[in-house]
Amino acid sequence: MGFLCTFISKTTYLKKLLQATIAAAGIFLFTACDNNNNAPTLASFLGPKDSGVQQAGIKMIPITTPVGTFKVWTKSIGNSERVKVLLLHGGPAMTHEYMECFESFLPAQGYEIIEYDQLGSFYSDQPKDSSLWTIDRFVDEVEQVRVALNLTKDNFYIIGNSWGSMLAMEYALKYQQHIKGMVIGNMMASIPDYANYNKVLRKEMRPSLVDSLQNYEAKGMYKDPTYTSLVFSEFYTKHLCRLPEWPNSVMRSLQHVNEEIYVLMQGHSEFTVSGRIVNWDRKKDLASIKVPTLTVGAKYDTMDPEHMKWMSTQFPNGQYLYCPNGSHLAMWDDQKVYMDGVINFIKSVDQGKTK
To answer: Of these residues, 80, 124, 162, 249, which one is catalytic?
Structure first.
């Protein structure tokens, strides 16, 4: 710290702030991964991956499907041969934007992160063929992304949230030989069980509110301003994100959702799943996923935290992280607990301390 103090005394405020930030980042990256001698330098971690025109880590990846080839948007932040983390957003058909908070935590550990908009989401191609929107087709897409980005069993981690965690489980059931570690965040292993827990949460609402919501739903008035306002103020602010002001990243993601795909797969209402995933259930298959897996539950989540805890006991190499102040977006509203837990998990896997 001494050299920083000397530096500060000779610079302007703006210059000293910039240089202190760069110095701190360099020091941290040199000591990342528990002082591993192979930890990246600042220049190698933030430098370009190739000699071509640099696009801030953005790469449009061609995805082959039964109805044609389309492109999906990805953005890599950092360069690491040890830890590469693919972020799988929820929805279906939300965007990577609400997961941008990982940028403030994982790269500082020397971890490379890959933000990714799944096909149909805002920054990727949005074909109209409804046959594309199936779990199996999305699993195949993730595998094509993995291959294109050269993610391997020695460095490939997945962090999912909500639908992204459902997709992660499905991907692991087919391609777990390529995964080093996986985080299943805020997603139960059964849509029917999720629907039942939603009924529990609904019963906690005042009866007059439930009556009002049911009246709108019975008439199919899911877009009515009064209905959407009630759902936001009485449900989302309690169980989706509990921050008094929602982050810009979250708001942008909500504004960019592909509603056509969301409704087709999830359904119109958060309370009643009626889309293509309505009968999805993988409880009996969790034991076949052998890779180190962390499940994340939160007290105020739309997903039952006790179910998330139970899931961790079904994975042969499972761990559980509980966020006592978190909701469905615990990476935002219980951020320290969430991020500390995820980072500790990745460190334990990287150091071979899991089964």
So the answer is: 162
